[in-house]
Design a protein that fits this description.
By secondary structure, this protein is of the alpha/beta class. It has 2 domains: 62 residues, 2,3-Dihydroxybiphenyl 1,2-Dioxygenase, domain 1 (Roll), CATH 3.10.180.10; 53 residues, 2,3-Dihydroxybiphenyl 1,2-Dioxygenase, domain 1 (Roll), CATH 3.10.180. The chain contains 2 helices and 8 strands, in the order βαββββαβββ. The longest helix is centred in the first third of the chain and has 11 residues. This is Glyoxalase/bleomycin resistance protein/dioxygenase. It comes from Rippkaea orientalis (strain PCC 8801 / RF-1) (Cyanothece sp. (strain PCC 8801)). It holds the Pfam family Glyoxalase. Keywords: Dioxygenase, Metal-binding, Oxidoreductase.
Length: 128
């Protein structure tokens, strides 16, 4: 299999308006397209992350809860590369987002930290 890139990351949220606000107004991702899929009673929000990456945010009437913690099998977290970690942390905290203490990656020597989206999905910011 020859892969050119990751096409998108899909996230199912429990409260569409709350998550839409978080990803657009708090994290600053731009909206590519917003679609209401009437037959599924569901929104699909395509968000631009950086220059070429995309998150697809989905809403469904009654999604189940996240079944695992970040240390269980499955997707552990979603990480975003940033240039200035201190600036991003300060910006998130100024918007009421709780951010964990900054850590040092023992393998790369780079700094990183975690915060959570409205559904407690672990998100990482990694200074690159």
């Amino acid at each position: 299999m020859k892969v050119k890139k990751i096409h998108h990351i899909a996230i199912i949220c429990s409260d569409y308006e709350k998550s839409k606000h978080f990803y657009t107004n708090i994290l600053g991702f731009s909206i590519i397209e917003e679609t209401f899929r009437e037959h599924r009673n569901s929104y699909k929000l395509d968000l631009r992350v950086g220059d070429n990456d995309r998150i697809e945010l989905f809403s469904f009437p009654n999604p189940g809860p996240r079944l695992s913690n970040p240390e269980n099998c499955g997707l552990r977290h979603l990480a975003f590369a940033v240039t200035n970690l201190d600036e991003v942390v300060a910006n998130l905290e100024s918007k009421g987002v709780s951010v964990e203490p900054i850590r040092l990656d023992e393998l790369t020597g780079k700094r990183f930290t975690f915060f959570k989206d409205p559904d407690q999905l672990p998100l990482e910011i990694y200074e690159n």
